[in-house]
Design brief:
By secondary structure, the chain is an alpha/beta fold. 38% of the residues lie in helices and 13% in strands. It has 2 domains: 5-284, Type I PLP-dependent aspartate aminotransferase-like (Major domain) (Aspartate Aminotransferase, domain 2, 3-Layer(aba) Sandwich); 291-423, Aspartate Aminotransferase, domain 1 (Alpha-Beta Complex), CATH 3.90.1150.10. The chain is built from 17 helices and 12 strands. The strands form 2 sheets. The protein has a 7-stranded mixed beta sheet, sandwiched between helices. It has a 5-stranded mixed beta sheet with strand order 8-9-12-11-10. β5, α8 (186-189) and β6 (199-203) form a beta-alpha-beta unit. α1 (5-11) packs antiparallel against α3 (59-72). The protein is globular, with a radius of gyration of 22 Å. The N and C termini lie far apart (56 Å). Bound molecules: pyridoxal-5'-phosphate. Pyridoxal-5'-phosphate binds at residues 82-84, 87, 108, 110-111, 152, 156, 181, 183, 203, 205, 215, 217.
Length: 425
């Protein structure tokens, strides 16, 4: 039976049968027992399927991955130990030393570093583009060794909206997949595969969990990208893998090729699986994701409208506001609401932003975002501290930017806390 997103949030991935636990059980076991040596050998020869070691597969992790795949409308998903690991795996699964990819520069600071510094050390180069450039200018950045295009549906912390359909068209014109980090939007507000994206990533640490209980990530595959049509570009998937029985992922696994390679090659060699206990917590968060997203968006809209009218506020970026440069994109891709995150700047110096934050009462200063509790951060002093002024500008972050993550408390209380903090400035 086809189910709506709210129902998948509750029932996706795990269905108890007679006498089984109603709640997804935590299979907190590194390994799984077999009765004969031959049974185990068949697993290694890929003649049978079954769990054998949690680094490769675990029933709790798999159930939650299935739920997220269903929410995004993908054919498969892999949970990772963090959002950073998810973005690393999404790229590294199809890029190796000597390869190149293109990314929007409106991305999370950690991803910016991963792409610009760490992947570079592995011999993978990336070009940061401005998503406001015209098609011609972006297309000029593609090279014969370009392997993918990356962007965030709603960027952290700038809150810009990624024109998924446009960038999917450009990526596909050049024979590469579009990878979209859908962390802030969540599949409740936007399903990037419906607009042509091929791979979706998540930091499940954020709205999916929603209660600041676990750090996690996820890579979801639409199953739509035709790797064989680009055989020579993606030999990592279309030619035999010596380290995996000489199997060719595309011929052996069809539209599950990309997902299978992450599990059997990257997880095998690099690890980064979540603890089953964490997946259990994530699953509880997912059960209320649809409800919470509606409340986050309703609250953030009211807070954004209040901030926009406030004389101490110099500028605001929230695509739910009609005055926002990305409002039309938000109406197209996120008609039910964007998310709870608002970027704004206070008039005055960078120090004003810090003073305002120190005056807050229940709104907390945390290195976290997209949580049930309203929280606040000054990226230039915190998450993006390692970036130079020039890199900050490139990433669309002004030194006065305050990232406010509107929670699901009573919105009048949130506004009252903001008001009293501004009154004291
Ligand atoms: N992607 C986005 C959009 C994020 O906001 C973050 C973290 O804030 C990450 C990826 C990294 O996720 P994690 O902190 O779970 O490693």
């Amino acid at each position: 039976m086809k189910k709506n997103l709210e129902t998948i949030c509750i029932h996706g991935g795990w269905k108890a049968t007679k006498g089984e636990p109603q709640q997804l059980p935590i299979y907190q076991s590194t390994t799984f027992r077999y009765e004969t040596s031959d049974q185990m050998a068949k697993l290694f020869d890929l003649e049978d399927t079954g769990y054998f070691y949690t680094r490769l597969a675990n029933p709790t992790n798999d159930a939650v991955a299935k739920k997220i795949a269903a929410l995004e409308g993908g054919v498969g998903a892999v949970l990772t130990s963090s959002g950073q690991a998810a973005n690393f795996y999404a790229i590294f699964n199809i890029c190796q030393a000597g390869d190149h990819f293109i990314t929007s520069n409106n991305i999370y600071g950690g991803t910016f570093n991963l792409f610009g510094v760490t992947l570079k050390k592995l011999g993978i180069e990336c070009t940061f583009i401005d998503q406001d450039w015209d098609d011609e200018r972006i297309e000029a950045e593609f090279r014969p060794n370009t392997k993918c295009f990356f962007g965030e549906t709603i960027s952290n912390p700038g809150c810009r909206i990624f024109d998924i359909e446009r960038f999917a068209r450009i990526a596909h014109k050049h024979g590469v997949p579009l990878i979209v980090d859908n962390t802030f939007a969540t599949p409740i507000n936007c399903r990037p595969f419906e607009w042509g994206a091929d791979i979706v990533t998540h930091s499940t640490t954020k709205y999916m969990d929603g209660h600041a209980t676990q750090v996690g990530g996820c890579v979801v595959d639409s199953g739509n990208f035709d790797w064989e049509a680009q055989h020579d570009k993606f030999t990592c998937l279309t030619e035999p893998d010596e380290s995996y029985h000489g199997l060719t992922y595309t011929t052996a696994f069809g539209n599950m090729a990309y997902t299978t390679k992450i599990v059997v090659q990257l997880m095998r060699d690099l690890g980064s699986i979540p603890a089953p206990q964490n997946s259990f917590l994530l699953n509880i968060g997912l059960e209320t994701l649809a409800l919470r997203m509606r409340q986050h968006c309703a609250n953030a809209q009211k807070v954004a409208e209040w901030l926009e009218k406030n004389e101490k506020v110099g500028w605001i970026s929230y695509a739910g506001l009609p005055s926002n440069q990305d409002h039309a994109l938000a109406q197209k891709y996120l008609p039910g609401g964007t998310c709870g995150v608002i970027a704004f700047g206070l008039k005055g110096s960078r120090e004003e932003a810090i003073r305002f934050m120190d005056n807050l009462d229940f709104i907390s200063i945390v290195t976290h975002v997209a949580d049930a509790r309203t929280c606040v951060l000054h990226p230039a002093s915190h998450t993006h501290r390692q970036l130079s002024e020039e890199q900050l500008r490139e990433a669309g972050i002004s030194p006065d930017l305050v990232r406010l993550s509107v929670g699901i408390e009573n919105v009048d209380d949130i506004i009252a806390d903001l008001q009293q903090a501004m009154d004291k400035m």
